[in-house]
Amino acid sequence: MRANEDEERELITAVRNLLAQSGKPVTGNEDTVTGIDSGKLATGADESVPPSPPNGETAQEEAVPVSAGSAPGETEERPTPSSGGWRTGGGENLVRSLLERIERQKSGVAKEAAVSPSRAAGDAGTRAGAPLSSAGRNARSGIFDRMRGLKDADAPDPSDREDSGAATVDEPGPDEDLSIGVVSVDDLGNLADLILPKSATFTVEELNLTRNEHHFDFVDNARVVSEFDDLFSRALSTATLAAAAAQAAPADEAPQSRLGFLTKLHLPKATETIEEYDPALHGPLVDLAMRPSPGLEEIELYPVNEPYAYVRVTYDGTTREYTYSVIEPVLTPGELELFEEIKERLFETLDVTTRNLTRDEALKALRDAANAIIADYGIHITPPGREKVLYHVEKEFLGDGLIDPIMHDKYIEDISCDGVNSPIFVYHTTYESMKTSLIYQSATDLDSFVTKLAQRAGKYISIAEPMLDATMSDGSRIQMTLGSEVTAHGSTFTIRKFREEPITPTDLIEWHTFSPLGIAFIWLAVENAKSCIFAGGTASGKTTTLNAISLFIPPLAKIVTLEDTRELKLPHPNWIPSITRDSFSQDGRGEIDMYELLRAALRQRPEYILVGEVRGREALTLFQAMSTGHVTYATMHADSVASAVHRLENPPIDVPRNMLSALSLMSIQVQARIGGQRIRRNKQLIEILDIDPRTNELITNEVFRWYPATDEIRYSGKSYILEQIMEDRGWSEERMQEELKRRQEVLEWMRIKKIRYFRDVSKILVSYFRDPEAVVERVRADLYGEGGAA
């Protein structure tokens, strides 16, 4: 500001001198105008310009004709202002121009406070006719003005010079312009190679370089703006733009020092490769260390979805309770914000149908979409951080959200959510019912999850119809309620997990649910087309046993299964799984219940019919099928033969008693406790023989019975079914005993060898069906040594 005042005083002094001398005679050629002393009027000159010599010598410039009356080529040296060689009219015009210039300077001080004093003075001096020095133009001028070129912006139009009578100054040529450090955008050639990397996604035009504009259109990021301007000021203080362009990095190398502001923007690279997460290199994603807590003991720690999810079972000695704790990667605040942003973007833009994709293909498509969003934002994230974010994205879109780790736990049978702000409970095969560390803390999240489960199952749940039974994608059964219309604590769900690997007869023997002889007995009965119903209470293992004994069905027999929700899984190739369907309208039209399925199944000529659960009018049709020679296996809720018969004979089933004799066997399953541990046992295996004509009571025979005191299952020694098989096949009693022994040895051999996968078990059973001698020889060689004899 001080420099401006000094310059203004110098201008005023010069003007007063001109006014004082305006009436003196003119010397020399009247058609010429001389220059003004550069030491007094060239206010735009830098301090580095030397002052006027003390001996009175003035700057000499070529005379420019301003009148048509002057002879061509006539030139004369311009006298100094003290010589009085000014034409009155020309002097007045110049004075008027200078006065207007002073007024504009006064009015523009407030508006252009950010403009440096040297630049303002240089601008005034240029328009007054004094050439601008190199140092004066470079000092403290804005980067955008230097890039656009001050020559084109400030130079007066040639036509204006001829008419105005103002002094004319020769501007430096292009070469001189480069030498003083000013390069116009047009002269530069390829500006993109100078200021932008080739990986940038915007063009030079989008930078919107305009005069007097010293910032990008950033939002709340003024720090980057100042660093940007300072960076270019430092970079151009000692080198010109032309020199910088000549020293630009090659196309395959990213510029470094001049592009610091682009580095701060984290612009994505078109060919950027993603570093994959490596546990050995980057370390674990979760912290498995247990924090010390009084009275809390760690019982077991095992992975359920390695390396992402683990389960820790702890025991509290104070409350004497087990707790099921889920350990997952914890997101930092920044990672959590990124996860929420990715989730929102995917909900808006993801267009992938998983029906025609395998899980691996769907997972790859989801990860690629999430990685594209991360690259789109230009976010730099470590491989472990990226993997943690992607894991939570996979849980949300392809998994089961909050309960996804539990769904991966093969030891969990049931999952129960009782409402919002209530812990989720699980039933563990070893530790039974336990409280977990997972809680739905938002009613909105819980309602959304229940609705999503219904949609995935292809069904609909709403406040108008708030209850729903469905099957999950993995075959698990789920019962749901929505909102607080029918459940006071909000939405609820209960999941009966479906085992991806079904239970086999080997498992039933290993768990002591059946004895090896009892399984061998059932094997013979199934192979010889004897029908059976498995009865018991809730979670007593009825459906599990039904699925296990179905492996005894001959390999090529035609099987039809009827279920409300998919639970049975068979290895047989000639198998038709059937499922009921709800109505599409309020009047019940379009509904396909178990009765309709059974009627259709009888027209398919099945050899074996398996019914998930008998509970209605389909039971009558089922017993009619038994009477006509169809082998049938089913489950029902009953805790004894008497209660089973009572249910069958009364509404809504209404099976006549004389039809019950078509049933061959009834297995009673129970859930009990031995030594504080919950177990499942085959309480009774009873043969249905006939109906007493005098009393109209069923005649039964108990073949096997479980004794809780010793936890043993004993054979009664008498079986009418075995006698009937002996008669049908022409076997002697010794042959029957040998057959039972051989099958029992095969089952024990599989248990000892831990052959429990259902397809492996099925291969051995099929091999025995086709060549029993070869299988028995191999089994006895392993059990008894080289001799192969018991």
Automatic annotation (TrEMBL):
Domain Bacterial type II secretion system protein E stretches: 452-665
Region (Disordered): 21-94, 106-177
Signal peptide: none
InterPro entries in alphabetical order: P-loop_NTPase (IPR027417), PilB3-like_N (IPR056570), T2SS/T4SS_dom (IPR001482), T4SS_GSP_E_ATPase (IPR050921)
Low complexity composition bias: residue spans: 119-130
Family to which this protein belongs: Belongs to the GSP E family.
Protein name (database record): ATPase, T2SS/T4P/T4SS family
Comp. bias regions, Basic and acidic residues: 143-164
Source organism, top-level taxon: Archaea
Residue span(s) of domain PilB3-like N-terminal: 269-329
